[in-house]
Design brief:
6-stranded mixed β-sheet; 7-stranded mixed β-sheet
Amino acid sequence: MAVSPEAGRDGGVWRPYLDEPLLTPAMTGGPGACPSWEAVRLRRYLDALVTARTAPVHTAVAFNAVYFGFDTTTGGYVGGPLDFADFAPVATGDRVDALPVGAMITVRTNGDLVPAEVVYKEGAHPLLGTDGDMPGWLSGAPAAARGPGLLAPDPEPCLRERLVFDTGAFGRALSAPAERLGRLSRRGAIDEFGHLLVESRYTGPQAEMDDTAFYVEHLLGPARDVLLSPLVPAPLPFLLPRGSGPSALRSALTGLVETVREALGALPGVRVWGDHAFSRSSMAARLRNRGPLGRDDLEHVALSIARSGVPRPMRHGTGQAGAAYTAIGPALRSLAHARDLLRGTAYPLAVCHAGTVVADYARGESDETTGLLPNGVRLTLDDPWQGGGVWRALSNESVDAAPGTGWRSSLTHGAGRPPVPAWLPDDSEVGAPLRPSGQEGRAWIQPLRGVHLRDGLLPVPPDLMRDMPLDALRVRLRHSGPTDQDTSTTHPVRLHPKAGGAARIGWPDDFFPGIRLSCVWEPDTGLITAATQPLPEPLSVDGRPVRHRYDRHVRTRDGHVPADTYVMIAVRRFGYLDAHGRAMLAREHLPEAVRLAMPDIPRPPARLDGTVAQLIAGGLLTVERGSRGADGRPHYPPRSREPLLDLLCYRPEIQYLLPAARTGDAHAASGAVVRRHRVPGFLRLIGHLGHEASEEQRRLFRADHDAFGLAGSSELPPGYTYVRPHHRGSARPAQAAPPLENV
């Protein structure tokens, strides 16, 4: 979808054109790389988009509109690669793979198709009260939280969410009228507000991402075929240089999304709440309204939240102070006279307006010196996701509270939090920045933990962070990937002191937990150079190729688990680490360690001893002799005059891979353990190289299409060729590797 610079306004909506794409190669570098005249065109289109959409426009939805072609005049996506048959079917009560804002879905019914776009979502935890009250520990709690201070390290946590969808995203002809949505509600496909209440299943890396970062992962994963389709107005592969790899694709996509986010926030007629943009005129119209969900109702909600933090008088005349937490979504739905005005896409608009009113009230009425409201309460947004936004009110608080205070308070003061076992190891130094001797103070070595790869974070030593600017900071990554070609990519980043480093970095796909970066900060240029260090010869660690120097402690704690069992997870997560990355756990502590690793199971499985025996027989665990100290912690080797005990020991299986010079195998140079395997037929994009498929490949595709009973057209799409099913790889021996140092 594009906007012609010469186009005028028609009924207040900017008229779109298809002949001049909005996206250009310059925009893949982020907001700073977007020329001013292109930025003006983009802002004009986004201004029209915010006016045309009935719900506040999330950054992901805005990207959809720009990339897939949303016509702001007719009100829908026009053509393009969006195929309703590929949309995920969803109904209330379903347990589904987590969907980001911006995902395309169909509401699952017994009748015809109801396509829609997810335009908003929020947490809908069962402990949220009907009027917005909630337990404090839930505010800002991570996905694995199960109670005050209680975590369940589930690799696929499941969260209850409210999804708001827009059936009008595909034009008025496909928009579901109120009567039809009412029938779906009565059948149980959607709830009484016309929304989807689902159990969303996340993988570990997705659970703590914000909505926009999660959508980028969605586009690079389940929606990758749609993202790379040649049918979009400006396909992403055509915006990149030839030969660009996965890391360049991720960086370009992140740059485009950041460009759209920046353009949304720069619109003069738009206000932004979180990642959602809405017009100032819609806000003004609500505040002029004295009826339901108008000025009076929003002011009542703001004052009620502020009053909740005032200590309640007790029988003997004293007050008991304590933080009160209120979720604004349920608070709005509790207004009986306004329930009909919160159906469908009207709900997220009301939530954004209400959150803005509360924020303006807290900022405008608080004392400039103390930050307290006239009633002595400090009001802060503690969790922007759960229940539409959780507000924290506490009387006479002297310091600003960082987001997530409710959960963090439960870690130290929460009732029911189990005591920390004395035998647990101290992992505070695992993954910490290392200062090499003999180098200047602005250099450090940083092993990346799993959370750093997941969140796109580069940790920075605290003493350097104090001198770094929040903005005007860049990270240049120098890395030799599987092809042994040294690449250099630069990421504009922002320093996040609370997160402990520079965030929003697109790490390459071949990065793994424990990989070490040599980092140098140049204050004059604001540039952090981070470089990987290749190993002299590639290794295989637990069957996974490793080509770069790594920290063995991090690799043991966060890396690939060769046997997905309770026992192996507990040993690697809670065993003591030695200099070689071995983890050793006292066998007598195994049941308690399993309970800590998997708190959702009521007791360790009855076959725990059998599992241990199988792991020992398979060579994945060994039994070593250690001793128990006076503090209950194990020691290895055993110390004299201490009681002896058995230690379950995990030892990484490290092997040298045969170098390419001896095998002549190109895969050996990449450090890959290649086994013979079957590759199914697939389509390969060649149009960006100026090529077209031969008639022979077209004939083969038609033949296989009929032979395998494939769905869709039997003709190759333009710009693609067909690669038939075949076998790849061969068995190769590996050589055992002696221990290597971490540095």
